[in-house]
Amino acid sequence: MTSLPPVPALRRVGGLAVAAGWLFLTVGSAAWFTVTKQLRDEKITVPGNAPVLAGKPVQGPVTAYVEAHVIKGNAERGAGGRTFADISDALRGVDGSSEEARVLRNQSAALSTAASLRTSLMTSVLAYGVSALVAGLGAFFVIGGSQLRRAAAK
Question: How many CA atoms are closer than 13 Å to the CA of 58, on its beta-carbon side?
């Protein structure tokens, strides 16, 4: 049969959990608000061809994800459905000074820019997820630590 740890140990562990929880909650919330502020400062608006949230400012995980989705679709349409690999293959088969080569290089540049924008937006979405996880863990630690301290007081 095992016994419970001594009361002072439970109280200390509970206190540490509460302190760590408040730290996690604060850091997670601060990260969420920082990403939101940075997105807001960019003054990006979800375009009219978005499936949802058209015209809304990009300032949260959902609008950032929708914007990234729209950028992907627009880039694919602008490149005629071609990928980087398709364009590279096509460039190898044409004269480098031809009009077709110029069009292909422009499509490649547009795809590259779109990929960079999408990556930035998806990084913001990921940052929102991590900050929510950290804040959620913080809340869990605060509640769990409080329960340990309460149990030690009985």
Answer: 26
> Residue 41, Cβ neighbours under 10 Å: how many?
9
Q: What is the pLDDT of residues 69-106, one digit of tens each?
A: 999 999 988 888 888 888 888 888 888 788 888 888 88
Instruction: List the one residue out of 51, 88, 84 whose CA is nearest residue 67.
Output: 51
Phi, psi of 52, rounded to the nearest 5 degrees:
-145, 160
DSSP state of 125: H
What SS3 class is residue 45? strand
CA–CA separation, 71 and 114 (whole Å):
6
Each residue's pLDDT tens digit, 62-76: 999 999 999 999 998
- Match 């109280």 to its residue by tokens: 11
Instruction: Answer yes or no: pTM beyond 0.85.
Output: no
Contact 105, 9 (CB under 8 A): no
Rounded to whole angstroms, the Cα distance separating 108 from 128 reads: 30
How far is it, in rounded angstroms, from Cα 48 to Cα 74?
12
Alpha helical stretches, state H, 43-98: 61-78, 84-92
